[in-house]
Amino acid sequence: MLAGVFLLCFLSDFLLTSRAQYAPDEVTDLPGMTFKPSYRQWSGYLQAGPGKFLHYWFVTSQRDPTKDPVVLWLNGGPGCSSLDGFLSENGPFHVNNDGATLYENEFSWNKYANVLYLESPAGVGYSYSDDQNYKTDDDKVAADNYQALQSFFVKFPNFTLNEFFIFGESYGGIYVPTLSLRVATGQAKINFQGFSVGNGLSSFALNDESLIYFGYYHGLFGEDLWRDLNDNCCNKGGCNFYNSSSDSCKIQVCVCVCVCVCYSGPRLSSVSLNAVPPCINSTAQTNWLNRGDVRKALHIPATLPAWDICSDAVGEEYNILYWTVKDVYLKLLSMGLRALVYNGDTDMACNFLGDQWFVEDLVRAINSEVRSKHPLCGRSIGMNCLICPSFVLRDQQCLDQQSVTTLIVETVFMAYFCAFKLQPPLIVVKSC
Ligand SMILES: *[C@@H]1O[C@H](CO)[C@@H](O)[C@H](O)[C@H]1NC(C)=O
Ligand SMILES: *[C@@H]1O[C@H](CO)[C@@H](O)[C@H](O)[C@H]1NC(C)=O
Ligand SMILES: *[C@@H]1O[C@H](CO)[C@@H](O)[C@H](O)[C@H]1NC(C)=O
C-alpha cells in the first residue's frame, strides 16, 4: 500500500516536474532577432555528472517536430564550442558582422530536424563544473555527453520516441563514434539510428599522411620540397610522412608544416592542437554571445566568465585516447547502425583525403556479417564517393550525386546534405 502511494506520488511528481523542467529554458526573445522564428528554442543546462553542467541550445524542426529526427551536433577542438556550429554553420540563424543583429540561415539543418547543440565538455563556452577542473579525455567526454543526453530526454520527454542521430565535425570525428557506442550499448532508452561526421578526425596517421599530398596538390609546396620529401620519406613507392624514424624526413615534413600555417595537427606541428583555429573569424559571434542581454535571454548564470569559441583550459590538458576510431566504427556498423562520412574539399585540418582513406580502409575491414546488414557496403559510385554505408562526398559532386545518394541512404534526412551542399561555405580551414 505504502509502495503504491509512493509510486503514485512519484509518478505525478515526475509528470509535473518533467513538464516544468524545460519551460524555464524556453528562449522567447533574442536581442538582434528581427524575424519571427517558425520553431521553438530552449537554452539552459544539462547535468553531466555531479557538479557538471553542459550548456545546450535546442531548436525544433521547422517542418514537423513530432516526426522529424532529433540530431545532436558537436563541434571539435577538443575544447571548441558547438555554438560555432549553430551561429556560423548549420544553425537556424547567424550573426551579422555588426555583432548585434541576426539573419536567417536558409541552409539550416532545423528545416528537417530538431537539433540539439551541446557545448562539451565542461569548461567549453558556457558549460562549467563547480570544481572548475577541466582536465578530461576522450572516454570521459563520451561518458559526460551520454549523461547529458539522458538529462536532455528527461527534460524533453516529448522527444524520446523521435529517431535520434549524432553528428559532429573535426575532432567530433572522435566524439561522435565514441558517444555513439555508449548510446548503442547503454541502458538508456534512446531511439538511436545512426551517426555522421563531417571533415572529421578519424585517424591521426591517415590525416597527417594525406595532408602532405593535399598540400602538394593544392600548390603549397614547390617541386624542390616535394622532391626532398620523396627522397627522404619514401622507399620503393611507399611513403611515410606521418611517423618516419628518419630525421631528414622529419625535417622535410617540418618544412611543410611551416608552409601550412593553418594546420594545427599535434604530430607534425609544434602549434598546439588546441589553439583557436587560426582561420576562423568568430568576432561577431563572440561579441553577440557576450552581450549581457543575450546571456540573460539564453539563461546563462551571471557568474560565468565570458564566452570564447575554444577553451584553452580544456584544450591544453586534454588527453587523447583514440588515435584511430576504426574499431569503434566496426563495432557500430556491426550493430546495423547507419553512418555517413562527408567532407568538404577545402578543410586542411581534417582533409577529405584522410577521411576517404579511412573509409576505404574500413570497407576492406568489414566482414561478411556486417556486409549482409548493409547490402551496399563496399560499392563505390562515382569518383570519391564511397558507399559503406559510410560514404565520402565532395561538395562539388554532391549536387550531381543527389539522385544517387537519395536512393542509397533511403531517407530524405540524409539526402538533404546534398541538396544543401553539405555545409554552409564557411567551413574553410578549421582545427580538428
Ligand atoms: C572579423 O570579423 C569582424 C566582424 O565581423 C570584422 O570586423 C573583422 O574585420 C574581421 N577580421 C578579419 C581579419 O577578417
Ligand atoms: C509536449 O507535449 C505536450 C502535450 O502534447 C505539449 O503541450 C507541449 O508543448 C510539448 N512540449 C514540447 C517541448 O514540445
Ligand atoms: C607508425 O604508425 C603506424 C600506423 O599507425 C604504426 O603501425 C607504427 O607502429 C608507427 N611506427 C612508429 C615508428 O611509431
UniProtKB/TrEMBL annotation:
It comes from the Eukaryota. One of its GO terms (molecular function) is serine-type carboxypeptidase activity. SUPFAM superfamilies: alpha/beta-Hydrolases. Residues 1-20 form the signal peptide. The keyword tRNA processing does not apply. Keywords: Carboxypeptidase, Hydrolase, Protease, Signal. Its EC number is 3.4.16.-. It is an enzyme of class 3 (hydrolase). Gene3D superfamilies: alpha/beta hydrolase (3.40.50.1820). InterPro entries: AB_hydrolase_fold, Peptidase_S10, Ser_caboxypep_ser_AS. One of its GO terms (biological process) is regulation of protein stability. It holds the Pfam family Peptidase_S10. PANTHER family: CARBOXYPEPTIDASE (PTHR11802:SF434), SERINE PROTEASE FAMILY S10 SERINE CARBOXYPEPTIDASE (PTHR11802). Protective protein appears to be essential for both the activity of beta-galactosidase and neuraminidase, it associates with these enzymes and exerts a protective function necessary for their stability and activity. This protein is also a carboxypeptidase and can deamidate tachykinins. Heterodimer of a 32 kDa chain and a 20 kDa chain; disulfide-linked. Belongs to the peptidase S10 family. This is Carboxypeptidase. It comes from Nothobranchius furzeri.
